[in-house]
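Case study 2.
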Amino acid sequence: MTTEATASAGEARRREVRHALPVLTLARLITNGALRFTPPFLVPVARSLGVEIGTVGLAVSASEIAGLSAPVVGRRIDRSSRRAAMVMGLLAVAVCCIVGATAAGIPMYLAFLLGVSFTKIVYDASMGAWVADRVPYGERGRVVGIMETAWAGSYLVVIPLLALLAQVTSWRWALGGLGVASALFAVAVGRRLAADPPHPSADGHGQHLVGLARTVPVFAAVGCMMAGAQSVVIVFGAWLEDQHGFSTAAIGGVAFLLGVGELIASTSTIRFTDRLGKRRAVLLGLGIMAPAALGLALTSDHAALGIPLLMLVTIGFEFALVSALPLVAELHPEARATSIGIGFGFGTVGRGAGAAVSTWLYSRHGMGTSALIGSVMAGVSALLVAIGGRRAEAHLTA
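Prediction:
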């Protein structure tokens, strides 16, 4: 291919990404809202289902087992159409939300949690692979940062709106509304993206994963940072209500502040991650998260001090995770969705362990112990990135 033809093809891919970016990001805003729905509404959900908050926390933890399917899901996506997988994922999220909204007990609510955890993997892995197919690694931090504003937006926009709706109706109507929105975006994504062919070359992707041992520390670091963040986030709503008397609407206001923090982190990755290099950017984020979580552990009796530190935990985690995503997708470039799936699998183990341990400790010792676990796990993640990240990134252009 001539230089002119290569440049033309590259510009066509950039136009395609710019055209699809808004709808893909908004669709992810909805799926993130579904995934993050339970922690802020932990108390009313538990009350409505007639169980203790620890039981709902265990259900959240158990639902993370769905993420163990991520490598298999990624392998399937590597062999099929990215667009078709995204549409199917969004439609499945819609069905799961309706199931959760009509749950009569914890088994049905667990089905919702399991379903959302699984179907969100389908959407995220196919979306991540679609972007990685079209955006060079050296420029990918900016694009991923833009799309990751949807994570911040779920707390900045979606959860506060749902909290207000739940205040005047119930959490069930709020969750059902998310389901309707996900179905609408499934249609929008199907119309906005051009059809992409299957990827039969990915059938031999196992040959390209022979260097998996080299990349395990990076995958494990993702799991640890997810465990640390989940240890704090899973109980923040209960902490504010139990210890400081916050109403559901007030907790929604704190969720809004956390969304602001995540937006700051995501927009910072747009500007800095590609320039710093992905590994250094991850270490910077974890360097903010670990001491902030430790500070929260020491000041949890004081909401005026704890809430700003909770926000710093969120900023550090989000910056670290978003900076890690382009690296994870490129660890095995011949099987990108599979590589993303492996990262999700490690993240699932981390989130599940964090939810189970943190809710158990919170019910006995309060927020201080949960936040301390978050700080320790962030430190372990930083150590893994420092040791293994350099080797993993040595063959890439940062």
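Residues 42 and 53 are 6 Å apart (CA to CA).
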